[in-house]
Design brief:
Shape: elongated
InterPro entries: Diguanylate_Cyclase, GGDEF_dom, Nucleotide_cyclase, PAS, PAS-assoc_C, PAS-like_dom_sf, Rev_trsase/Diguanyl_cyclase
CATH class of the largest domain: Alpha Beta
Domain GGDEF: 184-320
Largest sheet: 6 strands, antiparallel
CATH superfamily of the largest domain: Reverse transcriptase/Diguanylate cyclase domain
Strand content: 15-25%
CATH topology of the largest domain: Alpha-Beta Plaits
Number of strands: 11
Distance between the termini: 98 Å
Strand order of the largest sheet: 2-1-6-5-4-3
Domain PAC: 99-152
Protein name: diguanylate cyclase
Oligomer: single chain
Structural class: alpha+beta
Radius of gyration: 30 Å
GO cellular component, one term: plasma membrane
CATH architecture of the largest domain: 2-Layer Sandwich
Helix content: 25-40%
């Protein structure tokens, strides 16, 4: 005797066929978080065939190298508390309609990275019981990379690739506020290319640009990931060093000065020495609540000014700027280690 097909089974079969032909990459989990639908668009997006995941909980392998929850898993488990740790950008739909998120996925099968916009929502029966979770995916990689490129252009100096002045000012405000909260030291290096106008006049603006690029590259190579190096303006640079004691900042400044000496960028202008050198002013503050970051900048600027007027090609601490200011000192040959003025 042939079994009569129930209307609900017909509807379910139709829904599955419909999802298979959707142009939107889609997969469906049952309440046990097993894959019951993995449509053709999802196969194309991930490179993973439906046969590899249907009936399993291995759908995560299509998107990540290590086992972790996908968005549909969080819906099935009602774990909205994990959204923040797993997805940098997310929203929770109202009325229990699911979650939306964006995330970089490593796509192990394809060997590339995609930035995916993800929506996952539950399907309940008439009694409110969960019967499935549907996850849909949109490839937003091109848009995300374009957005990142625009942000980089807006925050970077076009010549050196370092942070620009606006970006540096924002970083200073953030790190100053953090240092106030944590009572930790914040150090600032202000760096100036000695006799740069003479260099430009002698070698031309193209060579001048090359010189600044070389200085910027040396700075970027010699700093920690947490430090912020910026082109502060013209031939002047700045380095912001969070959680850095004064002695550490002085050591970094000296290494930077020596790195430029080792580049041996020929200068040759009268009274400028044979090679390009740097003058660096260093200041450190553990900011109190009533202090402004302007104080840190002013003290580093004062140290830089004193360094340039006491012979150039040297590192000078803000603590000793006043005591040495005005004392003319001969410039040692580039490459010779200076005694730091603390």
């Amino acid at each position: 005797m042939r079994r009569t097909t129930k209307p609900s089974e017909v509807a379910q079969s139709y829904a599955v066929r419909l999802m298979q032909h959707l142009v939107v990459p889609t997969f469906v989990l049952n309440p046990q978080r097993e894959v019951v639908v993995w449509n053709r668009a999802c196969e194309r997006l991930t490179g993973v065939a439906a046969a590899e995941v249907i009936g399993t909980k291995k759908h995560w392998r299509a998107f990540y190298k290590e086992k972790r929850f996908c968005l549909a898993d969080l819906v099935a488990n009602e774990r909205a508390d994990l959204l923040g740790s797993l997805y940098p950008e997310f929203t929770v739909s109202t009325h229990g309609l699911g979650f939306s998120a964006e995330n970089w996925c490593v796509m192990p099968k394809l060997g590339n990275q995609l930035y995916l916009a993800i929506d996952a929502g539950p399907i309940h029966d008439e009694d409110g019981r969960l019967i499935a979770v549907v996850e849909t995916l949109r490839d937003m990689t091109d848009q995300k990379r374009a957005e990142q490129a625009l942000k980089a252009l807006a925050s970077s100096d076009g010549l050196t690739g370092l942070a620009n002045r606006r970006s540096f000012d924002q970083a200073l405000a953030i790190e100053w506020a953090r240092a106030q909260r944590t009572r930790s030291p914040l150090s600032l290096l202000l760096v100036d290319v000695d006799h740069f106008k003479l260099y430009n006049d002698l070698h031309g603006h193209q060579k001048g640009d090359d010189c600044l690029r070389g200085v910027g590259a040396a700075m970027a190579a010699g700093l920690r990931p947490a430090d912020v190096a910026a082109r502060y303006g013209g031939e002047e640079f700045a380095v912001l060093m969070p959680d850095s004691a004064h002695g550490v900042a002085l050591d970094v400044a000296e290494r930077l000065r020596e790195a430029i000496c080792r580049l041996r960028l020929a200068h040759g202008a009268a009274a400028a020495g044979s090679h390009v050198t740097l003058s660096i002013g260093v200041a450190t503050e553990v900011p109190a609540e009533d202090m402004s970051s302007d104080l840190l900048v002013a003290r580093a600027d004062q140290a830089l000014y004193a360094a340039k007027h006491s012979g150039r090609d040297r590192v000078l601490s803000a603590d000793k700027a006043l005591s040495v200011f005005g004392r003319a000192q001969g410039v040692a040959p580039c490459g010779a280690r200076k005694t730091r003025l603390r």
